[in-house]
């Protein structure tokens, strides 16, 4: 059987990073969900987010919690979207989750179920500080999928109004064929599962995803928006990102603007059309059409 080496070559940086991370000894996550590092506080509060003195306005009564993706963190993943939302009057917060000991900056690698518990504790902290009854969640990649475990199994549906997923790994990924290569290397899947379970949980057909999606994609009383790009090279095929069920809106950026060429990383970092659709999802009563010229 001929192996898809060209696909593997395109994904070489991700493969090398995964190999590096699998060398890290397995141990419990070192950081608490309620701990905000001095670096995070300095970087975020100077831009107006992660300000726990912020009180939601009547126009935007729910704080927004941003949930980074795999290998992301609470600051770098949101240098574009967080200020965008703050400028529009939202109280915005972001957390680090899924940390591995000895691996700085690159988070979202621990078991997704554990990460969902970290999100639960963080949401409670945000609601307590702001006095709000509910929050809205916006997540990129794993950060758009992981909250669904919180909503479905950890009581999050009572505390969350809306979940917006930017390129979320809702039904798993083949990583453009990379995960199929793992079968040709004995022990590779087991190594990834042992050392970086957050990656293993997102592989198409994983036990975690089977449990998450069993019985339906959604829970009542929460609205869901998925924003995807057909040029996604990480969560593939891109259609696996979409959800089905009541209260779901699936958006493909190229249906709104054929000239949008954003891929997996760009949709979370700086795509202004994705940002505009996010704002629409957070405030549907004042939504405006998203077009190629939706830059504001």
Fold and architecture overview:
By secondary structure, the chain is of the alpha/beta class. A 6-stranded parallel sheet has the order 2-1-3-4-5-6, with helices on both faces. α5 crosses α6. The longest helix is centred in the middle third of the chain and has 19 residues. The radius of gyration is 18 Å and the shape is globular. 45% of the residues are buried. The N terminus is likely disordered.
Layout of SSEs?
Elements: H1 5-10, H2 12-21, H3 38-45, E1 64-67, H4 81-87, E2 92-95, H5 112-130, E3 135-140, H6 142-153, E4 160-166, H7 178-181, H8 188-195, H9 197-200, H10 207-213, E5 223-228, E6 248-252, H11 253-256, H12 264-269, H13 272-282
Parallel strand pairs: 1-2, 1-3, 3-4, 4-5, 5-6
Helix pairs in contact: 5-6
Describe the structure using short key phrases:
296 residues, alpha/beta, six-stranded parallel sheet, 13 helices, 6 strands, 36% helix, globular
């Amino acid at each position: 059987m001929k192996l898809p080496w060209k696909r593997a070559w395109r994904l070489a940086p991700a493969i090398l990073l995964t190999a590096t991370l699998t060398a890290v000894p397995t141990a419990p996550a070192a950081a608490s969900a309620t701990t905000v590092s001095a670096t995070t506080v300095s970087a975020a509060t100077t831009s107006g987010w992660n300000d726990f003195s912020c009180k939601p306005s009547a126009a935007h009564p729910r704080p927004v919690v941003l949930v980074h993706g795999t290998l992301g963190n609470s600051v770098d993943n949101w240098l574009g979207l967080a200020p965008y939302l703050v400028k529009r009057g939202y109280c915005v917060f972001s957390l680090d989750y899924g940390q591995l000991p000895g691996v700085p900056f690159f988070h979202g690698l621990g078991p997704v179920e554990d990460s969902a518990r970290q999100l639960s504790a963080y949401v409670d902290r945000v609601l307590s500080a702001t006095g709000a009854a509910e929050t809205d969640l916006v997540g990129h990649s794993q950060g758009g999928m992981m909250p669904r475990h919180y909503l479905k199994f950890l009581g999050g549906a009572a505390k969350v109004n809306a979940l917006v997923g930017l390129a979320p790994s809702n039904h798993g990924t083949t990583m453009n064929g990379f995960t199929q290569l793992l079968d040709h290397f004995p022990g590779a899947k087991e190594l990834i599962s042992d050392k970086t379970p957050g990656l293993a949980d997102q592989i198409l057909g994983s036990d975690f995803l089977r449990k998450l999606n069993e019985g339906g994609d959604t829970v009542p009383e929460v609205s869901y928006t998925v924003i995807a790009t057909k040029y996604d090279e990480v969560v593939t095929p891109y259609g696996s990102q979409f959800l089905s069920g009541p209260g779901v809106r699936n958006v493909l950026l190229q249906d709104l603007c054929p000239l949008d060429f954003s891929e997996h990383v760009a949709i979370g970092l700086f795509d202004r059309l994705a940002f505009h659709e996010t704002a629409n999802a957070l405030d549907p009563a004042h939504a405006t059409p998203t077009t190629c010229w939706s830059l504001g």
